[in-house]
Write a structure and sequence with these properties.
By secondary structure, the chain is an alpha/beta fold. The chain is built from ten helices and eight strands. The protein has helices at residues 10-19, 32-43, 106-116, 135-150, 168-182, 205-209, 218-229, 267-279, 296-299, 304-322, and strands at 54-61, 70-77, 86-92, 119-123, 156-166, 190-194, 256-261, 284-289. Strand 1 (54-61) and strand 2 form a beta hairpin. The radius of gyration is 18 Å and the shape is globular.
Length: 323
């Protein structure tokens, strides 16, 4: 059976075509070192203070037992609080769990912080393949424990912590919600899962449909999951804290916002995850953006679809925090 991928949004199609080979659809393990170097070069221009609107502090907090400390970037508005303790956005970066730092993807989160008068804590977790599962999710959980325990010192409200992430960071955020529920740890007010990486099996129709197409295809997905899980990838014994799509119980989770493009590898696993939250009696808002490829709004923020997606996330956060 011939699988025809959905078309890209016209504006996004133009942007992707203009980027050409600078956006590889299917990196392999051999490409990771070069991609990390490119990311480090791009991060040099990142200003977490947003021109002075925020103060930015790098901290290292206690890590999991027997593991190194966890680096956190804490970003706080410089202006006085508008209304008492601020909400806290706890952010996990993307990058397939093989790339990235706590400054990756910060632009979107700082936009929320400006609009919502929020504190941002962005976690830097250990990366695969040097540090396979459970290193990444354990680091993210350790960072959340510290953030919840010290929110007041940051001018934040420990009762209003929102956990958020995109791509691999979205998958880690989903795993974090499961882990916090099962360990009776800090309960987030909500979780924002932006085109999250949830399923190591890499065998959905959308994964096959988008093979070789777009910004993160089935080959890239297999590369990343193999780096994280090794030979266990796709097998019967992968835990839900590694790949949240494996969870059999999605009850008792914080309200979730999920979004994904219609023209990307993760589409089917994200739709299924939202459906199973509803089936478990939970709260979820799902958006499938027509013609969106993976990471489209970060890649081409000027396009109409990207602006619409970003506005929908911000609107959901406003409603969540107003409860």
């Amino acid at each position: 059976m011939l699988l025809v991928p959905p078309p890209f949004d016209p504006e996004l199609d133009v942007a992707l075509a203009a980027a050409g080979p600078t956006v590889p659809s299917g990196p392999t393990l051999a490409d990771i070192a070069a991609l990390r170097a490119l990311q480090e070069s791009a991060a040099v221009g990142c200003d977490p203070t947003d021109g002075g609107a925020f103060t930015a502090t790098d901290l290292t907090v206690p890590g999991p037992e027997g593991a190194p400390g966890v680096p956190l970037l804490v970003v706080r508005p410089t202006a006085p609080s508008r209304n008492g303790p601020r909400p806290v956005i706890y952010h996990a970066h993307g990058g397939g769990m093989v790339l990235g730092t706590n400054r990756a993807g910060l632009e979107v989160v700082l936009e929320w912080a400006r609009e919502l008068d929020a504190v941002v804590v962005s976690v830097e977790y250990r990366l695969a393949p040097e540090h396979p599962y459970p290193a990444g999710v354990d680091d993210v959980y350790a960072g959340l424990l510290w953030t919840a325990g010290h929110a007041g010192e940051l001018g934040g409200d420990p009762e209003r912590i929102v956990i958020a992430g995109a791509s691999a960071g979205g998958g880690l955020t989903a795993a974090l919600a499961l882990l916090a529920r099962d360990r009776q740890g800090p309960r987030a007010l909500g979780q924002v899962l932006m085109y999250p990486m949830l399923d190591d099996r890499n065998d959905s129709l959308s994964a096959h449909q988008m093979a070789g197409v777009g910004a993160w295809d089935r080959t890239a997905n297999e590369t990343a999951w193999t780096a994280v899980l090794g030979e266990a990838r796709g097998g019967p014994d992968v835990p839900a804290y590694a790949a949240p799509a494996r969870a059999t119980d999605l009850s008792g989770l914080p309200p979730a916002f999920l979004d994904v493009g219609s023209a990307e590898t993760f589409r089917d696993e994200v739709v299924d995850y939202a459906s199973r939250i509803w089936q478990a009696g939970g709260i979820a808002e799902l958006h499938v953006w027509p013609g969106g490829f993976h990471g489209f709004d970060a890649f081409a923020p000027h396009t109409t679809l990207s602006r619409t997606a970003r506005a929908a996330r911000l609107a959901w956060l406003r409603r969540l925090l107003a409860r």
